[in-house]
Amino acid sequence: MNREKDFHLIDPTWCLGCGIYGIFSALKKASAQLDLDPEQMVTVTGIGCHGRLNNYFKSYGFHALHGRTLPVATGVKLSNPRLQVVGVSGDGDAYSIGLGHLIHSIRRNINVTYLVADNRLYALTQGQTSPTSQMGFVSVSTPEGSKELPLNGLQLALASGGTFIARGFSGDPTQLASLIEKAMNHEGFALIEVLSPCVTQNKIITYEWFRSNIYGVDEDTSFNPSDKRQAWERLANKDKIPVGLIYVEKKPSYEALVLPDRKKPLVFNDLEVGELRLKKIMDKFQ
Ligand SMILES: Cc1ncc(C[n+]2csc(CCOP(=O)(O)OP(=O)(O)O)c2C)c(N)n1
Ligand code: SF4
Fold it and tell me: What is the mean pLDDT of residues 140-150?
């Protein structure tokens, strides 16, 4: 039985052809393949076009402030580690205003799957230059062309101790779904950057551009995703963009260390305060 429709709440209204449709479709596919139920999942999004995903995806959801996807996702996971928590951000949300949270989530290895929709600009606010825009990119915020080097988010993740680092392409939702499945099964923080064209505002970085600039890391049989040096070299190469599972490593997740007894998530604690305890608390405020 095809269970993908169980995760389809309503039809999305992103611009026709937007890359985020591919992410939406891959997330439904992966969730169905893992036989999850919508009530076992929480999707946390930031502000941006990508942020509308949890209006359309059927699960619990939290539409966080811009750049605050990961603090909310961390809170949800620590309150109830039984939930499958998926964060969804744009490149602005993840790599600009939210960058500090990303590095600390990576080094903690909190068990969250994080999808970063990289359309190489700020789409919702009308196409300004983002941290992943290429040098020379002309937009309302850089009318003379960007003078900044683009950020290499996955290389930064590897240097920060990332345990699952992957890149997908929204033009290939089947491959993306298989990466999301692996990410959800990974014990720890799983980062998937998804190359995801904004068809309305980015007339340079298009589906065709991505197709002619990407290659699959698994095309080379000597590539080993447990080898950090190989991963680093692939990510450092500026000529061709690697896609697939780039690095994976086993390490205990943050909640396995701070909540070793995962049978008793915080959320199931007895919230009854009791009269005596309530009095003690109230006395403190007097
Ligand atoms: C604290 C804060 N600063 C700025 C904004 C304005 N803002 C809304 S979305 C956005 C950027 C969106 O770009 P991105 O995160 O890449 O998502 P996309 O729209 O491309 O999916 C900005 C700067 C905001 N909502 N809140
Ligand atoms: S503006 Fe761009 S990113 Fe936003 S919905 Fe339209 S195509 Fe997608």
Answer: 97
Pocket test residue of 23, 52, 119, 195 for ligand 2, highest count of atoms within 8 A of CB? 119
Q: Quote the radius of gyration of the chain (alpha carbons, Å).
A: 20
Provide the residue type at 190 as one letter: A
**CA 286 / ligand 2 centre spacing (Å):** 53
pLDDT tens-digit profile of 170-214? 999 999 999 999 999 999 999 999 999 999 999 999 999 999 999
Which helix H or strand E contains 90, and what residues bound it? Answer: strand 84-90
Residue 262: pLDDT band (50, 70, 90) is low
State how many domains the chain has: 1
Q: Domain of 186: which CATH number?
A: 3.40.50.970
Q: Do 83 and 51 touch, CB atoms closer than 8 A?
A: no
Q: From CA 197, how far away is CA 4, in angstroms rounded?
A: 23
- 33 C-alpha to center of ligand 2: Å? 27
Q: Give the model's pLDDT for residue 263.
A: 60
Locate all alpha helices (DSSP H) within the chain, ordered by sequence: 20-33, 53-56, 69-79, 91-92, 99-108, 153-159, 173-185, 207-213, 228-236, 254-258, 275-284
Q: Residue 160 belongs to what domain range?
A: 4-284
| Confidence check: pLDDT of 276 > 90 | no
- Residues within 6 Å of ligand 1 by CB: 47-50, 66, 90-93, 117, 119, 122-125, 130
Distance CA 29, CA 195 (A): 18
> Is the pLDDT assigned to residue 275 strictly greater than 90?
no
Residues 6+ apart with CB under 8 A from 108: 74, 189, 254
- pLDDT value, residue 217: 97
Q: What one-letter code names the amino acid at 194?
A: V
Angstrom distances, CA of residue 88 to CA of 85, 120, 161: 10, 15, 21
